[in-house]
């Protein structure tokens, strides 16, 4: 290793991080991965790894100082965004996000209040100042959704259809909340929403993509899970006119200078309702799709940013307003419960010219529980095509080719996304 080669410490070794490791190595960085799981996927690709929890900041400080780390990076989950910030503060090295910015992104109450300050539409919640009283329960219009204000990855969320449900859901939400605080909102039961991807570049806010996020609700009491993220959204023009100016003002109001953000919204009766924001790289690996559209790799920008390098070559401002000339999709594959016996078709799928990347979370021998959570996701495929027709054919080909069988001999694919039906709607 050359003396001048910079080192990046990655927090988490999950399958999604393999692409981060390889990208950083291709950029010339020496990559160290840490988490508490021996043999986690990204560790196998890294230059070096440690079995140290990403929450053990004291130990990570020791490792970073001994290794002479130049930067810290994380992606795909909110917990490690906080851990990375804490570690960088201890090391005295820069991090793209501040405590105040992460608080707004991580706390649903604070996020809503910040949205309201800039006239960004949100779902109005019920008043819980006096707790979950019988009077409040009597006023609820069911169904409602109960959420911890500060949990991640849909943990602790329950869709409730009556008073008994809401009492149990409220208790569950408090258990999952670090601050022991929950919110209750009307549940908008729709298989469709939007995901927006913004890029902050030297203080300017760029809308990299507006997408359609299609979901499937497997269990009545659990929140829906994604089955397709389609680029661009069929509601792009309406979003640009109705909501985008306020959202840009809101992001500028947070003082964000550089970084990538994802924002989720519901779409109901012709209106948008924003409900969640993350200040990090997304699980849909939208940076791969954006690079295919613009030639600019936002993951590379974030990696260079983590070590304090100049990022002027990543100027995305001339690719604003959801510039997506090539129809694209991030396709999650959801599974029924069971134990995986056999997986077939991956080699053929990866050979398809439309496939950019694949992240596989499961292998033969894994047992999938009926959790109604992301644990039921086999993996995700990132697809880019020259036309909507070609994109739809590629999506169908993935479903037709992929075969996941259980030890009982059953097909484990839970649901199939039908893009041609969306176009007819």
UniProtKB/TrEMBL annotation:
Under InterPro entries, the record lists:
ATP-dep_AA_Ligase, ATP-grasp, ATP_grasp_subdomain_1, CPAse_ATP-bd, LAL_C2, PreATP-grasp_dom_sf, PylC_N
List the SUPFAM superfamilies.
Glutathione synthetase ATP-binding domain-like, PreATP-grasp domain
Q: Which residues form the ATP-grasp domain?
A: 112-307
Q: Which Gene3D superfamilies match?
A: 3.40.50.20, ATP-grasp fold, A domain, ATP-grasp fold, B domain
Keywords (alphabetical) are:
ATP-binding, Ligase, Nucleotide-binding
* UniProt name for this protein: ATP-grasp domain-containing protein
What lineage is this protein's organism placed in? Answer: Bacteria, Bacillati, Bacillota, Bacilli, Bacillales
